[in-house]
Design goal:
mainly alpha, Arc Repressor Mutant, subunit A, Tetracycline Repressor, domain 2, 2 domains, elongated
Amino acid sequence: MNPKSDNDTRMRILDAADDLFRTRGYSSVTLRDIADTVGMRHASLYYYAPDGKKQLYVEVMERSFARHREGLAQAITDAGDDFSAQMHAAARWIVTQPPMDISRMAHADMSDLTEEQAARLMQIAYDAIRLPIVDALKQASEAGVIHFSNHDLAAMALVSMVQSVHGIPMRPEGRWRERIGRQLVDMLLQGWLHM
């Protein structure tokens, strides 16, 4: 087989599996669903994923979390040195990406995985959504811009609030999620008692 063709097919399989797992959840997706989406025979998937659906799920989630972490970190970096701009950029990144429903994953999708696989994926997910923000919070603390010490809690508060925007029913006008994300960041930055 041609290595480039194999790699292209593998990427198509991972992309299809990613979309199906994200929209339907692990337990609702079969290898046949993935094969049908890619346009190949079910048995042919085992050439690319010898351990089957679990292997595809773990690879898809690792890839997705790595992409999210890199994108979030880049958004914060691209915002420059202004802390408010960094937090607005983080919110914009979160609301413009597919929602990461880590709670659903932990309760529904991980039951078929080994305990080690599930623990590793949950740690990767947790790191992906919080570490770029934690880094920005630590830098802001060191610069005297903010004055609190629990950066992990602050990062998760921001992520949880902004991620909740995905649960709001769609509105017809343009970039409303980004506007709401920005408003939520402003509430955190200014504090409810000082608004």
